[in-house]
Write a structure and sequence with these properties.
The structure holds two protein chains of two kinds. Chain A has eleven helices and eight strands. By secondary structure, chain A is an alpha/beta fold. Chain A is globular.
C-alpha cells in the first residue's frame, strides 16, 4: 500500500478531502499500526481522497498537557497548527480519541479551526452513505460483541451511538457491560497513565474493566481507541483468555469493518 | 400573642439572620480568594443548566429511587417555606394564621398539602438514615466520612425530621383546641388536617391549657429550629441547598474534554517560536503568577465555590476508576480537602495571617502527589456530580504546579517529556517512521 502524503499532494497542486491524523500510537505501536492500516484500507475502499502528514505530524500534546506540562503542549500545538494551516486543512479524521479531543476541543482556542471527526463517526457516515459495502455473512455476523466506551470519545465528547451503529452494521449481537456509555469505566490509560506505571492500589484498572467485558460472554471486545486497545489486550492476556479456545479478541471497530468488506 | 412575645420574636429573628449573613459574607470572601475567571458568557445555556441541573435535579435521576426521595425533601422544603413566611409574619405582627382570611377556603387545603409534604420529608429522611446505616452503599460508608462528615450527615437528617415533627405537632394541637372551642384557636377554625390528625389520639388526654402550651412550644421550637438550621448551613455540607443554584449557573461551558488554556504560557511559547511577535509585545509587562495550583488561593473562585457546594454524596468517588481499584485518589476527598484548607486559610485571614505564612498548602498537607498522579482524567467524577462540581479541574491544576513549578514528575513522565521534545512523540522514535506503517 502506498501511503498518500500531504506534501506530495501539495506538490501536485491538489488537496485531498480529508487529512488522516494517524497519531503517535497509530504510527509507531505495532498493534495500533494494524488499526491504521485497516482504516486506510477502508478509506481506499470507500474512495475517500485522503492523505497523512507523515513526518510533519507531531504529538498533539494530549499526554504532556494532562501530565501537567503546559509548555510542551503549547509547543506541540503551535507547530501542528502551523503545519495544518500551511496546507489549508479543513477536515481531519483520526482513529485516536485523544488526538481527536485535543484537535477538536483544544486547538480552536489556540487558533486552529478544523472539522475533526473520530473514525467512529466517519465510518458511520460512510456506512450511511452506502460507501462501505460489507459482504454477506461477514466474520462477526451473529457473534457476541461488547463495546468498551473510550472516555475521550464518550464522556468527553458524547459520542456513544456512532461506534454502536458501526457494530450494528456488522450484524453482530451487542452485549453491553453494566458500566457503559456515560457510566463507562475507564481502561486506565487516560491522563497520561499510558506512559507511566499505575499508582499503588488493590488492583489494576484494566483488569477491573476486562473482567467486566469478559463477564458479558462476548467473543470480541470492541474498542475505538489505541490506548484502550492496549489496556484491554493486556487485561485479556492477564486473565488467560487470549490463548485458550475460543480466544477473546480485542479489536478496533475499524479492523472489524475492514475484515468484513465486500 | 403578647407584645413581649413579638419583641422576643423580632430579636431572635434579627440575631439569627444577622449571624447567617455574617457567615455567608466570610464564605463569599473565602471564595473570592480564588483567581478570577470570567464565567458570565452564554447566558441562555447557563439558564438552561440552572433550570435543569439545579431546579430540575436532572443528574439525580441517574438513580431513580434516590432521586424521587431527594425530590420529596427538596420540594417539601421549598414549599413549606411559604408556611414559614406565614409563621414569621405571625411572629412579627402577633397574629395567628395570618393568611387564613386572605386565602379563604383555599387555606385549609394549602395546609393539608404542606402536611403531606412534611410527612413525605419525614419518610424520606428516615429512609436516608436507614440507607446510610443499614444498606451496603460503599460511598456512604467510606472511611473518608469518619468523624465530622458522618455526624454532619446524620444531624441534617435528624433535624429535618424534628422540624417536620414540630410542624405537625403544632397543627395537631391547634386543630384539637379548635374542636374544643378553646380561646383564640376557636376564632381560626381550619378543621382537622389528614396527617396531623393522626397525632390526635396521643394528645386527646391533655388538658386544653397544656395543649395550648404544647402548641406554642412547637410553634417556637419549629421556627427557632429553622433559624438555627439556617446558621448551621455555612458550617455543613448541607450548604449545597443554597450553593447548588449559583454553582449550576456558573458551570464551565467549555467541552468536557478540553483543559483550561493557560494563555500566559501560550503567549510565551508563541514569542519563543516567533521572535518578531515577542519584539512587538515586549512593552507589555508580564504578570508573575504561579503556574498551576499549590494552594487554594491558586485555584479559580469557581473551584472554591465547588468546594462549598459539595454535599459529600460521593457519586464522583463511586464512579472514579482510581477509587474503585483502591488507589489513594478520591474525587470527593479532593473537594472536602479543598474546603477544609480554604476554611483554614479563611480563619487565618480573620486573624490577620496570610495564607503564605501558615507554612501549609493544599498540596501535600491535604492532597498527596500520589492521589493526583492516579487520575486518568476520565471525566466520570464531573459527569456524575449533580451540582456541577469539577474535581478533575483541581487535580489538573495541581499537576501543572507539580510539573511546571517543582519539576516533580514520575521518571517515566520525565522521559516522555524528553521524547516529545526531541522526537515529537511520547516514544523515542524518529519522525521518518511515521510514514512506514503501511509496510510494517
Amino acid at each position: 500500500m502506498g501511503i498518500p502524503i500531504m506534501s506530495e499532494w501539495k506538490a501536485r497542486g491538489e488537496m485531498p478531502d480529508v487529512l488522516f491524523w494517524v497519531g503517535c500510537a497509530g504510527s509507531f505501536d505495532p498493534r495500533a499500526r494494524r488499526v491504521t492500516k485497516a482504516l486506510a484500507g477502508i478509506l481506499e475502499h470507500a474512495g475517500v481522497s485522503y492523505a497523512i502528514l507523515g513526518r510533519e505530524e507531531m504529538c498533539t500534546g494530549d499526554p504532556v498537557r494532562r501530565a501537567g506540562n503546559e509548555f510542551l503542549f503549547q509547543m506541540m500545538a503551535h507547530q501542528n497548527i502551523q503545519t495544518l494551516d500551511s496546507y489549508g486543512v479543513k477536515r481531519i479524521v483520526t482513529a485516536c480519541p485523544h488526538c481527536f479531543n485535543t484537535l477538536r476541543n483544544e486547538y480552536p482556542e489556540l487558533g486552529g479551526h478544523y472539522e475533526v471527526l473520530h473514525h467512529a463517526e466517519f465510518l458511520q457516515q460512510l456506512l450511511d452513505e452506502g460507501r462501505i459495502l460489507l459482504r454477506e455473512g461477514g466474520p462477526f455476523q451473529g457473534r457476541k460483541v461488547t463495546y468498551h466506551d473510550s472516555c475521550y470519545l464518550g464522556r468527553a465528547n458524547a459520542i456513544y451511538e456512532a461506534p454502536r451503529k458501526v457494530l450494528e452494521a456488522l450484524d453482530s449481537s451487542l452485549a453491553e457491560m453494566g458500566r457503559c456509555r456515560s457510566r463507562g469505566l475507564c481502561c486506565g490509560a487516560g491522563g497520561a497513565q499510558m506512559f507511566k506505571e499505575e499508582e499503588k492500589g488493590e488492583r489494576r484498572i484494566n483488569q477491573e474493566r476486562t473482567d467486566e467485558a469478559l463477564a458479558t460472554g462476548a467473543a470480541v471486545v470492541a474498542a475505538a481507541c489505541p490506548f484502550c486497545n492496549t489496556m484491554l489486550t493486556d487485561g485479556v492476556k492477564a486473565a488467560g483468555r487470549a490463548e485458550v479456545a475460543p480466544p477473546v479478541e480485542v479489536l478496533d471497530i475499524a479492523e472489524m469493518i475492514a475484515a468484513s468488506l465486500a | 400573642m403578647g407584645l413581649l412575645q413579638q419583641i422576643a420574636f423580632v430579636l431572635m429573628s434579627g440575631i439569627f439572620i444577622g449571624c447567617f449573613a455574617w457567615s455567608m459574607k466570610s464564605i463569599r470572601r473565602n471564595i473570592l480568594l480564588g483567581r478570577a475567571e470570567d464565567l458570565t458568557d452564554r447566558k441562555p445555556e447557563r439558564l438552561r443548566n440552572l433550570l435543569l441541573q439545579a431546579f430540575g435535579q436532572r443528574k439525580m435521576f441517574r438513580n431513580l429511587w434516590v432521586a424521587i426521595l431527594h425530590l420529596v425533601i427538596y420540594v417539601g422544603f421549598f414549599i413549606i417555606n411559604l408556611e414559614v413566611l406565614e409563621i414569621v409574619l405571625d411572629g412579627v405582627l402577633g397574629t395567628h394564621r395570618l393568611f387564613m382570611p386572605l386565602l379563604g377556603p383555599a387555606y385549609p387545603w394549602l395546609i393539608q398539602a404542606f402536611e403531606w409534604l412534611a410527612a413525605g420529608v419525614i419518610v424520606a429522611c428516615l429512609f436516608f438514615l436507614a440507607r446510610r446505616n443499614l444498606w451496603p452503599v460503599k460511598r456512604l460508608q467510606s472511611a473518608e466520612l469518619d468523624g465530622w462528615p458522618r455526624k454532619d450527615a446524620h444531624w441534617i437528617l435528624i433535624v429535618e425530621i424534628l422540624l417536620m415533627g414540630l410542624f405537625l405537632t403544632m397543627n395537631a394541637s391547634d386543630t384539637l383546641l379548635q374542636s374544643r372551642g378553646y380561646g383564640d384557636y376557636a376564632q381560626h377554625t381550619t378543621g382537622s388536617f389528614w396527617v396531623s390528625s393522626w397525632l390526635h389520639p396521643l394528645l386527646e388526654g391533655l388538658s386544653s391549657t397544656t395543649l395550648a402550651g404544647l402548641e406554642r412550644s412547637a410553634w417556637w421550637l419549629h421556627i427557632a429550629g429553622i433559624f438555627a438550621f439556617l446558621n448551621y448551613l455555612p458550617r455543613s455540607k448541607h450548604l449545597h441547598i443554597l450553593l447548588a443554584f449559583p454553582n449550576a449557573w456558573y458551570v464551565r461551558l467549555s467541552p468536557a474534554g478540553a483543559m483550561s488554556n493557560m494563555s500566559d504560557v501560550q503567549q510565551e511559547v508563541q514569542y519563543a517560536l516567533n521572535p518578531t511577535l515577542a519584539a512587538e509585545a515586549a512593552a507589555a509587562p508580564a504578570v508573575a503568577q504561579r503556574f498551576g495550583a499549590k494552594d487554594v488561593t491558586d485555584l479559580s473562585w469557581k473551584n472554591l465555590m465547588d468546594a462549598y457546594s459539595c454535599t459529600e454524596c460521593g457519586r464522583c468517588t463511586a464512579a472514579c476508576p482510581a477509587s474503585q481499584t483502591g488507589k489513594q485518589l478520591s474525587p470527593r476527598r479532593i473537594m472536602m480537602a479543598t474546603r477544609d484548607r480554604l476554611e483554614e486559610v479563611g480563619a487565618g485571614i480573620s486573624r490577620q495571617v496570610s495564607p503564605q505564612e501558615d507554612g501549609k498548602s493544599l498540596l501535600r498537607d491535604y492532597i498527596s502527589e500520589e492521589a493526583l498522579r492516579a487520575c486518568t482524567t476520565c471525566n466520570a467524577c464531573v459527569t456524575e456530580c449533580p451540582v456541577g462540581i469539577s474535581p478533575l479541574d483541581i487535580i489538573l491544576q495541581m499537576r501543572r504546579y507539580l510539573v511546571m513549578e517543582e519539576g516533580s514528575a514520575p521518571s517515566e513522565w520525565t522521559m516522555m517529556f524528553g521524547n516529545v521534545e526531541s522526537s515529537f512523540a511520547p516514544w523515542k522514535i524518529g519522525s521518518e517512521e511515521r510514514e512506514t506503517w503501511a509496510n510494517a
